[in-house]
Amino acid sequence: MQRVCARPGCAAPAVATFTYDPTDRRAWVADLVAADRPGSLHLCADHAARFSVPVGWTLVDERAEPPAGGAAVPSSPLLARAFRASLAS
Asked: What is d(CA 10, CA 70) in angstroms, rounded to the nearest whole number?
């Protein structure tokens, strides 16, 4: 069964999975997972590319292919934080 985007009104096929931890104010976008995980949502390519998080949150992009116009972010949250810091400097 093919998954569709979780965004209301969007019936495009899902290509990414979004999960989040509100306690840590961190969110992850990863390649589409095979099995459903509690609290995860699936996004189409368009919505995954435009995905953003609230101010004060950290977004970790764990997709194998970098989004258009961006660089791949390492999958480890600590490496991702260091990677984003190096891009900012």
From this structure: 24
Residue type, 13: P
Report if pTM > 0.90. Answer: no
Angstrom distance (rounded) from CA 56 to CA 38: 24
Instruction: State pLDDT tens for residues 43-88.
Output: 998 888 888 888 889 999 888 875 655 444 444 455 555 545 544 5
Interacting residues of 3 by C-beta distance below 8 A, sequence separation 6+? 13, 14, 32, 42
Q: Round to whole Å and give the CA distance between 80 and 36.
A: 24
Domain definitions of the chain by residue range:
16-88
For residue 43, what are the CA distances in angstroms to 8, 25, 26, 36, 56?
11, 20, 17, 13, 22
CB 55 within 8 A of CB 89: no
